[in-house]
Amino acid sequence: MANTDYSKNELMNFIDQSPLDIEICDVTLRDGEQTPGVAFTRDEKIDLALELDSIGVEVIEAGFPVVSTSEKDIVKEISNLGLDASICCLARSVIDDVDAAIDCDVDIVSIFIAMSDLHLKFKYHKSCADVFSCAMGAIEHAKDHGLKVRFAAEDATRTNIETLKRAFLAAEDYHVDYVSIADTIGILSPATTHYLVSEIKKVVHTPICIHCHNDLGMATANTLVAAEAGAKQLHTTINGIGERAGNASLEELLVALRVQHGIETYDTTKLNSISRKLEEYSGLPTAVNKAVVGKYAFTHESGIHVMAILEEPRTYELFTPEMVGGKRNLVVGKHTGKKALKGIVNDLGYELDNDELCELINKVKNCTEVKKGISRERLEEMIRNVQSH
Ligand SMILES: CC(=O)SCCNC(=O)CCNC(=O)[C@H](O)C(C)(C)COP(=O)(O)OP(=O)(O)OC[C@H]1O[C@@H](n2cnc3c(N)ncnc32)[C@H](O)[C@@H]1OP(=O)(O)O
Ligand SMILES: O=C(O)CCC(=O)C(=O)O
């Protein structure tokens, strides 16, 4: 049966692409919480973890246990909720951090280290060999305690590529379960993401993770391209929150995976409600034009669009509001046309003849010259007004 929830990008049929082998690791509770001013409560973190699990996210990064005692307690509590998702937490390349992860009963510990010249010189004041040996020590310790390990190269995208390959290969000798390419400062483009993941994949046989930041507004696109180049684990945050300009957004990525690759394993109908919760818990309003979950993602005013939508919404909507738990909203304003207005008026339960409709559209156009947008109540008042003439 033809799919009616969304238009699949048929151009993908012309691209030589094997089916994607991916999983999502949502990092809202860790990198998302690093957004300035954001600190989730225990209840909020648990609620978000439950929601992420119900969407079908495979891995939830629950926090960074050494940050505080309560952070550690919450990570441990989330680990023991019995979720389907695997629970992961962050650790520096420090034995105490790994011990904290072990105490939290997580499935996966993400042990990170930066090996770029800038970070070695200005952050650690150490040689690459020194920090690297700290990382391998921490990995060995975690593995000895039965944890799955992600070895994350922070600032990987400004690290010499040969150094990166050597580090990942050495980590592979310790049987790490994932290696992570972190685009910590968001420098990647789709082309360079594809190149970097492909280069790493030529030599490293451990599943690759991609962790993209949004400094150039390309985090979601880069994450998708990384998956197309063979990355397994894709990092996201709800509403794309995270350090500075944020991370790849969960809702954008899940819908892109569906439209571009037909991946329908995630329950996208929950995306709007999780997004609203995130707004409330973080105190960060989402831009009205944010893809998928923005207030205007399914709001239409232009006459030519609305007249077509009234007949078939797919004319101007890539996917249905229902697919992502949203709602369509047809509004009147400066750009309203007669056919659109007639449809909206009828939907409100009114019938106007042609003269009344012409009078109403003139009123709408005049009114929006001075005041942007017309509320539903105001519109109904205007309809009754033209009817009474
Ligand atoms: C790219 C990322 O997102 S990385 C994660 C960023 N997240 C955070 O920073 C979480 C919030 N941070 C915190 O609460 C604190 O910084 C803590 C608890 C992590 C550490 O606190 P403190 O003990 O007070 O250390 P402080 O923050 O002053 O310095 C960090 C230390 O960790 C070291 N460090 C940083 N990253 C790493 C690493 N990957 N591996 C080993 N050591 C590291 C630094 O070099 C510094 O060491 P130094 O004390 O010998 O100079
Ligand atoms: O790659 C990872 O798993 C995490 C690294 C990270 O948070 C970053 O560098 O921004």
From TrEMBL:
<feature type="domain" description="Pyruvate carboxyltransferase">
    <location>
        <begin position="22"/>
        <end position="272"/>
    </location>
</feature>
<keyword id="KW-0808">Transferase</keyword>
<keyword id="KW-0012">Acyltransferase</keyword>
<dbReference type="InterPro" id="IPR013785">
    <property type="entry name" value="Aldolase_TIM"/>
</dbReference>
<dbReference type="Pfam" id="PF22617">
    <property type="entry name" value="HCS_D2"/>
</dbReference>
<protein>
    <submittedName>
        <fullName>(R)-citramalate synthase</fullName>
        <ecNumber>2.3.3.-</ecNumber>
    </submittedName>
</protein>
<dbReference type="GO" id="GO:0019752">
    <property type="term" value="P:carboxylic acid metabolic process"/>
</dbReference>
<dbReference type="InterPro" id="IPR054691">
    <property type="entry name" value="LeuA/HCS_post-cat"/>
</dbReference>
<dbReference type="GO" id="GO:0004410">
    <property type="term" value="F:homocitrate synthase activity"/>
</dbReference>
<comment type="similarity">
    <text>Belongs to the alpha-IPM synthase/homocitrate synthase family.</text>
</comment>
<dbReference type="Pfam" id="PF00682">
    <property type="entry name" value="HMGL-like"/>
</dbReference>
<dbReference type="InterPro" id="IPR000891">
    <property type="entry name" value="PYR_CT"/>
</dbReference>
<dbReference type="InterPro" id="IPR002034">
    <property type="entry name" value="AIPM/Hcit_synth_CS"/>
</dbReference>
